[in-house]
Specification:
This protein has 400 residues and is of the alpha/beta class. The chain contains ten helices and 18 strands. It has a seven-stranded mixed sheet with strand order 14-13-15-16-12-17-18, with helices on both faces. A six-stranded mixed sheet has the order 5-6-7-8-9-10, with no helix packed on it. A five-stranded mixed sheet has the order 4-3-2-1-11. Strand 7 and strand 8 form a beta hairpin. Helix 8 crosses helix 9 and helix 8 packs across helix 10.
């Protein structure tokens, strides 16, 4: 089954008309995208958009053999003119199945927002799932459908849709996930590709033809990622974003509750509100056993507070204790943690502060903490497939 993406952009396209934002201004060449429309084997069209006939011609395709046009979501603005020879567009009621003379079967999938998703099964059994913009499947049950060969969805706008599909086994390791309905929420080019890769997804230029079910080496999600950054740099948001398309993430908070500290409580609450409802949280600095276990992805926030706890435990703040075995004890704790990171089979995203570029601390204990955190960050980074530095909300790839 062949799929031609006549467009891969949001309903308004990218760049948006008359939008002065930086993302729209840089959406040029292959990063310019018409509204998403799909052509399946030249006979089935999913979503009719303005200029569909010209888009097909540019892709070297003809709409002359299209026998069915299906819409997935309400279209704002004036009605789209139906090119001569195309059948009138329609929508299939949720749960109903449509059998085409070409041997394709189309089943309407219920969404959690206005719109209809379509599961398309080709004559040879390949299975494609296409979701409308801003939508995620509703009412999916584990094991009900099995993994699709390809999923085409709004990965940037609704990463939780991908998480839901993964949770029920509809997206597996061999599923090719293609992002569409791309808007100006994220800058195009390398930043878009980086974010999609973190979700195990990819995007392609308008006019690309893909073979559903053919092996494509997709984006590989790094097993270990370290996210560094200064205060309020956006490092925690970046770390959370890297796992928001995965279900059942275990969020490991190393800072504790700090009873009576209202400012800290407000920080914790802000983090909790950002996290998907399906994530679980544990408050602990005992990271080695978690890294050794099999299980859901871990988000550790953060190593800086882990180090504070470790230095408290060995008395590292006191010069005399530090000289009389405290340094050696801390080195052993760090070594155990780094070895656990190296050996883990879980997907791990760890957050840590980058404090070495600021003012030199005025106290010996402050300078000791700064130096030990620098050593810890370097050691953990050495075991990670990907290392990011977040500055002013922008992630700079240092490794991977």
């Amino acid at each position: 089954m062949e799929l031609t993406l006549l467009g891969t952009g949001a309903p308004a396209g990218l760049p948006r008309p008359d939008c002065p934002c930086a993302a729209c201004a840089s959406a040029l060449g292959e990063d310019a995208r018409a509204a998403t429309a799909l052509l399946v084997d030249g006979t089935l069209m999913l979503d009719l958009t303005p200029g569909a006939a010209f888009a097909a011609a540019r892709a070297g395709r003809s709409l002359g053999s299209v026998r069915q046009v299906l819409l997935t979501h309400p279209h704002n603005g004036p009605a789209v003119e139906v090119p001569a020879g195309l059948p009138q567009p329609g929508r299939v009621p949720d749960g109903r199945e449509l059998a085409l003379l070409t041997g394709h079967r189309v089943r309407a999938v219920a969404m959690d927002a206005p719109g209809t998703g379509y599961e398309v099964t080709g004559p040879d059994g390949q299975r494609l799932l296409y979701l409308p913009p801003g939508c995620a499947p509703a009412g999916l049950e584990e094991g009900a459908v099995g993994p699709y060969d390809m999923v085409v969805a709004d990965v940037v706008g609704r990463p939780d849709a991908l998480a839901k599909l993964r949770a029920v086994g509809a997206v597996g390791p061999a599923t090719d996930v293609v992002a569409v309905h791309l808007d100006h929420d994220v800058p195009p080019g390398p930043e878009l590709r980086r974010r999609l890769a973190a979700a195990g997804a990819r995007t392609v230029p308008d006019g690309t033809t893909l073979t559903v079910g053919a092996y494509e080496k997709g984006a590989e999600v790094p097993r270990r990622t370290l996210v560094l950054g200064g205060a309020r740099s956006g490092k925690s948001v970046e770390a959370e974003r890297r796992l928001e398309s995965f279900p059942d993430v275990l969020y490991v908070a190393t800072g504790g509750t700090r009873g009576g500290d209202t400012e800290w409580a407000q920080r914790v609450a802000a983090h909790r509100e950002r996290r998907p409802g399906s994530w679980r949280t544990t408050e602990t600095c005992d990271l080695v056993p978690l890294l050794a276990e099999e299980g859901a992805p871990l988000l550790v926030d953060c190593l800086s507070l882990w180090l504070t706890d470790a230095m408290d435990a060995v008395g590292a703040w006191d010069d005399a204790v530090w000289a009389d075995g405290g340094e050696r004890a801390l080195r052993e704790r760090v070594r155990s943690l780094v070895e656990a990171v190296r050996a883990t089979r879980r997907t791990v995203v760890a957050v840590s502060n980058e404090v070495g570029s600021g003012i030199v601390p005025a106290t010996a204990s402050g300078r000791r903490y700064r130096d030990e955190l620098g050593r810890l960050n370097a050691a953990v980074a050495g075991e990670c497939e990907q290392v990011l530095l977040v500055v002013a909300g922008q992630a700079v790839v240092l490794r991977g």
